[in-house]
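Hi both,

Apologies for the delay on this - the queue was longer than expected. I finally got the zinc ion-bound model through. Below you'll find the protein sequence and the ligand SMILES exactly as submitted, and right after that the structure tokens for the full complex including the ligand.
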Amino acid sequence: MKKYYLAVTYDVCEHNDLFIDMNEYPIDLPTEMEAQVKDFAKQDVAPLVRVYESETSDFKNITLHREFTFKEYECCCESDSM
Ligand SMILES: [Zn+2]
């Protein structure tokens, strides 16, 4: 069965209890999922990208497929003295 994938980028800051979904991107090439997710993360400077899957193209019923984290885009709060 064909599956549809949707990537969602998140802006996350644990220090400020920030967890905001930024943008949604359909993944048109599931075989290139990792490369596409990397591009989305770079574009939005997102430390977290979740990929949801759906069996229908309307994404009415989605389940979490994979989660990608990008250390290089994490916020810099850690370096502050708090
Ligand atoms: Zn932070």
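Main takeaway for now: The two ends are 51 Å apart (CA to CA).

I'll put the files on the shared drive as well.

H.
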